[in-house]
Input
Amino acid sequence: MLRTKEAYHERLFAMRPNIFIGGEKVGRDDSRLKPGINVLDITFDLARDPQWKGLATAQSTITGGEVNRWAHLPQNTYDLIQKQKLIRLAARRAGGCIQRCMGHDAINALAICTKEMDLANGSDYHQRFLDYLKTYQEQDLDGCCAQTDSKGDRMKRPSDQQDPDAYLHIVEERPDGIVVSGFKMSITQAPYADEIIALPTRALTAADRDFAVAFAVPADIAGLSLITRPVWLREKDSPNASPFCRFGVSDCIVFFDNVFVPKERIFMCGEWQFGRRMALLFADSHRHSYSGCKPAVSDILCGASALAAEANNIEKASHIKEKLSEFAGAAELAYAAGIAAAVFGEKTASGVFFPNEIYANVGRRLTGETIYHEYNLLTEIAGGIAVTMPFDADFEKGENKEALRRFIIRNPDLSPEASIKIWQFVENVGASSMASWYKIAGVHGGGSPIMETIALNIGYDFEDKKAVARYLAGIDPSLDDSKLRNLEPKLNQND
Ligand SMILES: Cc1cc2nc3c(=O)[nH]c(=O)nc-3n(C[C@H](O)[C@H](O)[C@H](O)COP(=O)(O)OP(=O)(O)OC[C@H]3O[C@@H](n4cnc5c(N)ncnc54)[C@H](O)[C@@H]3O)c2cc1C
Output
């Protein structure tokens, strides 16, 4: 089924109120959540739009029917590239983070890791997960991914923490399920998701066994509280609000207080040896998702910078052209890394096609490194007006209204209305609470920069590079380049 956004809202607004904002319990129809719901709406609309059939939708390997691509397990390079294209498409409409990729990355991780656990231990998690995913696809559900634990003292392992709730953990095991407690934090879109998909956040030891837990629960299940921080733009309630102002996001502390998870929804229970694998599968899939969304964020920053240059009438200056070209580099190199990750991906034992970890990580690392620089480019081009411009109402009423219409003109070819809109947009893109969110998400989303360093130190073949140097330095007589040949592109749709 491809749900309408109206059906999504109906289900959402009927959920048990377990959302807290500023110390008050609120319903999911609270207006501060609406900007985030508007983003999710795009994902439902695109899937039902015939123009985007096959991009925003896919054929399910479980039901055989047409499903929303966010609920689909990628089977080949084509699927991964379609996902990347879809994220960029949707993110350009939402003005940035599309929020639904986290659930997609979580189901990929679960599909792959449950199979690998079963192969190692003879368990039956994989079929259990596929049964769950069937319903997820049939009902076109939206899941957020709750991976990041609050973690307490960063230098201590989960089992060494003073407060065991610093990491989500199993409190009790029963024949029909488990009881879990703990804090997950920075969880995007949890207050307007149907499901919370919980995964471990790190490598675990035998002592951490109770922290090796993965499952999915309805977002309003008994014992679960979502302490929510919504982010939105100042203009959102104005009748003249631009499309960009309709969108926002909410992040949560997801507090599990003795939540019962029925057996059929448990996908890891004590398999600490697979903690690292599950964590990395989500993270690497998510880093690949960034190769679609971050280029869209660059598109938006580039567009805002180019418009600011036009409004300042400095477009032809050589330093502006050079600065704008930097956006092209940032966006398209990340996008190219995503395509390379898809082309050089691998089929896993589960049948899910997984992006190449090296390309996924270098692409994500590049975007994390460039994000503040891109905001700096916008700031340099725009000047200081983004943080000093009068409020919108000053342009609409009061005795200075006409004077301000003259004040705002810099490029005589632009009307006062267009100039006002450009500078409001520049403020919203570059100097708002959303701008701060994108900067910090750009650095830490999908894992802090150190995580890409760790992933590359594990996965990148430094010995191969030493072999090149040894050969060229005259230490070794020959060079074995067979690895280059072995890296075969998977261009066939059925690979
Ligand atoms: C906007 C936003 C949205 C997000 N959305 C989601 C989401 O939907 N789902 C989800 O699961 N997560 C989400 N995250 C969380 C994100 O994955 C984490 O922020 C990231 O993994 C870093 O964790 P942290 O914030 O706890 O920072 P920390 O891990 O505390 O990192 C802070 C610093 O401490 C260092 N550090 C940490 N531990 C150690 C150690 N043992 N030794 C040495 N140095 C250490 C790090 O390298 C870093 O420099 C989101 C984050 C942001 C900012």
Remarks:
- DSSP finds 16 helices and 14 strands in the chain.
